[in-house]
């Protein structure tokens, strides 16, 4: 929601609560919502079923308090300063404090995105002059509805009474089907709100509040929308959930987002078909003992799914060194490639690029599909490894690529061809034995090794970029799976899975500071935040072709004095 609209929440909510009742209703005001994630379902009951998506944010203090166990002293000061600034902004705009005036009674917030109002699409087809004389299209605006839970109605009423002396705010009542709507005007901008039992609904457009009232009185709600009930009731099963996003019709939501974006181009039919493979999606954020965890679950249409994730045995993790900076691993590149080739039939531009790549490789007698991707049928890992010598010493890292394959013969044949091509470019092809493993290095005169390749075992091919990287891969002193940092970042992610995305933030920060200290040092605030992070871990899996799951952990360091 735009900032200027969100700042109108306090006077709008407060004024409508004045209208809602009096001290005589004391016993009634003792009830209310809890403010945790369980409040999403009751809130969805007053959101119209036309809503494209909804986000529920918990206001339960116990959930947010989990963040207090993390961070360096510098990062903790930044968080405290941010909260102080937020409170001052609220205070300056409305003479109220979130901590004292809002926190006691606000019980969870749901923000729903509704389709544009009937009058808005007509604007999209018209034009309007801009200050420079150009003619541009008017775009439909996003229509939002906020549903605020009331966990303590007496505290809410006291807050409303405190607003009676508020200056610069005017309010008038509008009757809609026997329900009072408060039109609150502040700084010339009207907002609309109404009390619906244990909730206050609030929107910049009156029609959205009217729709919420219709829903409250029995019209179909977001909870009854096809696909919504399941994702609302199940969620993503996170510990200490602070927010969840619900998208019951994924394709329609993306189309609406594109329609309201001035830069976005219309979707081609092929892309729309792919979008329809995702029926619904739920995304959540939670805070647990490891850090901030995010999960997304997509419900798929099996008939439209082109590719299914394969679980990996995660063996490449044990073949990489413990000081690995970053990693992307997975399974079955050849199947990914086949799915990409199949989809290229629907995209003429991409198909043309693909055919050009095939033709260029045929000139040097290489088959792109069979010799480059065909043998990559097992697990793979792409990693950034520290490099302290050779041509990449100044950069600080090189690359390692591991491929498990059941077709060693084809893999060996293509690298024999590549070695022959390298010789024609005056690159020295030199064999090396490292830790009992035979490796082939491509050496550039006076610069050291450019690339190396060889077999770590019967079915694992290693390709490295950087002079010292081949030694770290062929003969690692300690493996990545024994690294305490890797365990902290990935140890609690879902298993089995389709592979990992991993960042070691300590090493990333060291590289950043190395590159910026002579030009423009990293701001102290950014350095404090990054220093509080162990790393980032992401994984995904697909139990069957009707569901796909993604999990991400921002692993945080425990609080230090």
Q: How would a crystallographer describe the biggest sheet?
A: 20 strands, antiparallel
Number of helices: 20
Secondary structure category: alpha+beta
* Average pLDDT level: 83
Rg calculated over all Cα atoms: 29 Å
Distance between the termini: 37 Å
Poorly predicted sequence stretches spanning 5 or more consecutive residues: 1-30, 118-140
Question: Which band does the percent of strand residues land in?
Answer: 25-35%
The shape is elongated
The number of strands is: 22
> Residue share in helices?
25-40%
Question: What's this entry about, in short?
Answer:
This protein has 561 residues and is α+β, with helices and mostly antiparallel strands. The protein has a 20-stranded antiparallel β-sheet, sandwiched between helices. It has a two-stranded antiparallel ribbon with strand order 3-4.
Task: Please write out the topology.
Layout (H helix, E strand, L loop, with lengths): L2 H4 L2 H12 L19 H5 L8 E5 L3 H4 L8 H22 L3 H5 L3 E9 L5 H6 L1 E3 L5 E3 L5 E8 L2 H10 L6 E8 L2 E8 L2 E8 L2 E5 L2 H11 L11 H7 L6 E7 L2 H10 L9 H7 L2 E11 L2 E10 L25 E6 L1 H12 L3 H16 L4 H6 L5 E8 L10 E8 L3 H17 L3 E7 L2 E8 L3 E10 L2 E6 L3 H6 L9 H7 L9 E5 H12 L7 H7 L2 E12 L2 E10 L5
Antiparallel strand pairs: 1-2, 1-10, 2-5, 3-4, 5-9, 6-7, 7-8, 8-9, 10-11, 11-12, 12-22, 13-14, 13-20, 14-15, 15-19, 16-17, 17-18, 18-19, 20-21, 21-22
Helix pairs in contact: 2-8
